[in-house]
Write a structure and sequence with these properties.
Elements: H1 25-47, H2 60-72
Length: 77
């Protein structure tokens, strides 16, 4: 006795199992851009602030990110 096998497009999940929701790319792109820009600003402050391109005068930013600079391999003294 042969059993028919349904094609993958018509296979449904068993009752009680959760089907993962799809997330459209249009919903992800603004957040990805925002967090990418945030990471670039953070990288600037850790890696380049208090140098030739300093935006904030004084040593406050340098002291706040000093250990992070060494951890990421940026020279600071």
């Amino acid at each position: 006795m042969a059993q028919s096998i349904a094609p993958p497009s018509s296979v449904t999940s068993a009752p009680g199992t959760a089907v993962p929701a799809t997330l459209p790319v249009k919903a992800i792109l603004p957040w990805a851009f925002f967090f990418g820009l945030l990471m670039l600003v953070l990288l600037y402050f850790v890696g380049a602030e208090q140098g030739a391109t300093s935006l904030i005068s004084g040593m406050g930013v340098h002291e706040w990110v000093h250990d992070g600079r060494h951890l990421l391999g940026f020279p600071c003294h």
